[in-house]
Design goal:
Helix content is 33%, strand content 23%. The protein is an alpha/beta fold. The longest helix has 26 residues, at 89-114.
Amino acid sequence: MNMESHDKNTTHRLPETHRRILLFPLPFQGHINPMFQLGNILHIQGFNITIIHTQYNSPNHSSYPQFRFRAIEDRFSEVDHLRSTNRDPSYYIKYLNRSCEDPFKDCLIELLDEEPVACLIADAMFYFTQAVADELKLPRMVLRTSSLGCAIGYGAIPFSSKEGRFNLTKQGMVL
């Protein structure tokens, strides 16, 4: 199966690489959409794409027939009921990082046994994926899906790494 690239005047055939790229988005819309856009670009370039996803906010597989999908257990249902009272997004990101590590590793091992994998592209918020990829000797890249506004905000808020929290005091603030 050859992929085609179209421009204004010509059609170019791109050779299929017979190499698979694994994508692992955080299960929130602002993270899933950019990861799938990247997957489409890579697919057009001839790569086979497998999306590893959590059960929470699972994508509609029939909307993306060009991808293979693998679901992993996330246990998010255990904390989903807290969303009305706990609005701290970092709580849910930390929870997903803890609860997905073992199922993700098991999924990767299965996929690596099936066929060669060129690399893993994981959401930057899934920080546990680096250790798993290193252990399995799988190249890993991250996709940061944050907006420019987030990047500016991160740079503007002083962070105390010693205490592991933002240092939001009135002292030193410009009003």
